[in-house]
Amino acid sequence: MSAFLTVKNLSAALHGFDQRVLRSVSFSIDTGEVLGLVGESGAGKSMIGKAILGILPSAISIIEGEILIDGQDLQKMKPADRRRFIGATAALIPQDPLTALNPSRRIEPQITSRLVDILGWSKADARVRAMELLNEVHIDNPERVMGSYPHELSGGMRQRVLIASAFAANPKLVIADEPTTALDVTVQKQILRLIRELQERHSTAMVFVTHDLGVVSKVCQRLSVLYGGKIVENSSVPDFFKGPKHAYSRALLAATPKYTDPDASLLPVDESVIEAVAAEVLAADKEWRHGR
Amino acid sequence: MKLLRAILLRLATMSVTLIGAAVVVFFVIRVVPGNPIAMMLPPGASEEDIARLTAHYGLDKTILEQFWIWLTGVFHGDFGTSISLRQPVMPLVLGRLPATLELAIFALVIAVVIGGAMALTGVRHRETRTETAIDVANGVGLSIPDFLWALILIVLFGVLMPVFHISGRISPSLDLPFVTQFYVFESIVRLRFDLWWDLLKHMFMPALALAIPLAAIISQLLKQSLKETMHLDYVTLSRTKGYSENHVILSEALPNAVLPTLTLIGVQFTFLIGGTVIIERLFSYEGLGNMAIDAVINRDLPLIQGIVIVFALLFTIINLVVDMTYALLNPRLRHA
Ligand SMILES: Nc1ncnc2c1ncn2[C@@H]1O[C@H](COP(=O)(O)OP(=O)(O)OP(=O)(O)O)[C@@H](O)[C@H]1O
Ligand SMILES: [Mg+2]
């Protein structure tokens, strides 16, 4: 069976600079599968998600490679078609629920707008669906929440709303970019469970960006380790925790005191390992430039 | 009940502002040199005549006495009698106010349309030559004051390419059916589009001169605030839903970006009304500003006071409207 999302040799770079932000990234995800993307801050985890969803910052663009969703090559689509295709098949669960909702609009249209404007649902149907979704994310009084403004809701509530909004159109692919980092610890666990629950129920393919190997062990089937915009290791989760292939991954894992502890996050990695992986990225860069 | 308190507080501040303006103007115009009686009598009038008229208008009394007389009059709705025009002040002032209001509102509409369109175009094509061109235009619009724009427009469209009228409010040869002074409004209600068009041709240049600097301010601020908003997470999130750039700008970014601009428009609109004084003079437009200049030249103290009170009232009302609109558009204040 061919993968639902395939990223092949994807490179992205800042305009006017030779420096790549993503360096020949390749991975694939099957329907119903969750891929963890781990790596230190600035490694390019969010950049991969943005490239897939077509929301790269204006200064950065894709310079080579392919992104295939459901067999469709995004690069070959007209921009307007690509936009609508992504809107209908994929969704983003953002990192910071405090800034990801429009402060001047009520919750209801923020959940239903994609259904009504992009997928052509009637307002009434979309409303019913929104109620259903808010129930699914365990919000007790959906009626009230739909009429509220974002500032009237807590961070955890807002993230639930954003998750509901992400799953509104039954997306086949969800990109979750550190969806619990901005929440406090007790809420983090609930939200994590919720995402997992919805992902399983809808058999969604998911990219799960995180700093946290403990979370990876709970949520993901496979993971990719990123350093400097380059994937240094692609593994299944059980294989990875048995013994990572790459020295950098090993160091990452060793630096996590107890990877089963979901509160633990990545600790600084040994200098020599960093130097080695940085040298590897540079060597790969040299080769890549040579090959062009 | 918070709302009621806010309104009461607002009314209190408004009254203080008005009383303050009245007091300041009353005393200032009596301290500056110049004698209204001397202005209205022919040269060589006798000392006796001057004294008689001075007494007639109560100008021989002390300033405090005069103020008391004026104030009690005001509370009975009597703002005194114009010395130069020999008519009650309030009907005179209210007769001219509509002309100025129509001019100022027309200018505001032009400024919002031009400034808004420029800001939106600038954001739509941000970081391109189009945006640079808009920045340059904003700079030019801002660095030339309204009365110079007036002169430039007069030369361009009044003299070189005479498409608009450069003087007056409406062509004197026309028969006017109007019962109010709101000519533009009434011409629309009466479906007299011939008159409406004539009024517009008179109003266009003074309104544009007033509008250009404000349009530049609106364009600059709104574009800046839109650009900042475009980077926010909720805007990015809406892009992933499949919306076009235009939709993202208009429905997601604009409603939030417009709030700071709105406050600024309120303040700038009061400046614009201040600008009508000179602009009306330049275009011989028969509004309140033009009357104000005559009143000052003639040292017509009661008339100046009346005009200032009306302007001050206008400014406080504008501020009130802006605050209310702001609260209405901003959900965080709506419930506070
Ligand atoms: N708008 C931008 N312009 C230029 N470079 C950028 C921009 N945004 C991000 N970058 C660069 O791209 C690289 C990858 O950033 P990215 O946001 O993907 O990191 P990340 O792995 O998600 O990190 P974090 O864990 O902190 O979220 C970083 O080196 C960053 O400096
Ligand atoms: Mg990130």
Automatic annotation (TrEMBL), chain A:
Gene3D superfamilies the UniProt entry points to: P-loop containing nucleotide triphosphate hydrolases
Residue ranges constituting the ABC transporter domain according to the UniProt record: 5-253
UniProt xrefs under InterPro entries: AAA+_ATPase (IPR003593), ABC_Ni/Peptide_Import (IPR050388), ABC_transporter-like_ATP-bd (IPR003439), ABC_transporter-like_CS (IPR017871), P-loop_NTPase (IPR027417)
Compartments in which it is found: Cell inner membrane
Alphabetized GO MF terms: ATP binding
Domain of life, per lineage: Bacteria
Assigned keywords, A-Z: ATP-binding, Cell inner membrane, Cell membrane, Membrane, Nucleotide-binding, Translocase, Transport
Recorded topology in the membrane: Peripheral membrane protein
Family: Belongs to the ABC transporter superfamily.
UniProt protein name: ATP-binding cassette domain-containing protein
Native source species: Hoeflea alexandrii
